[in-house]
């Protein structure tokens, strides 16, 4: 499964990069395939392991922020691996045609 999620600290002002970095650090240290862009972090793995990483990422932000917003979108497709790369490669292939 692939989950794209966003953790946003609330009540800390407009500059939230250092708080988001706390969450991304948890994801990167998990060892699961992941990718971060301007809006979301995507992570790939089995349900329990992905959700555990997301839970810990939220907790990392929650330690320093009085309130946290979490948005997530999941692609639950059993048997598919390397979706983070293959989905993008498919789109790039079509763009090149």
From TrEMBL:
Highest taxon listed in the record's lineage: Bacteria
InterPro entries: MTH1187/YkoF-like, Thiamine_BP, UPF0045_domain
Segments forming domain Thiamine-binding protein: 3-92
This protein's GO CC annotations: cytosol
SUPFAM superfamilies hit by this protein: MTH1187/YkoF-like
One matching Pfam family: Thiamine_BP
Family listed: Belongs to the UPF0045 family.
Protein name: Putative UPF0045 protein
The species this protein was found in: Streptomyces afghaniensis 772
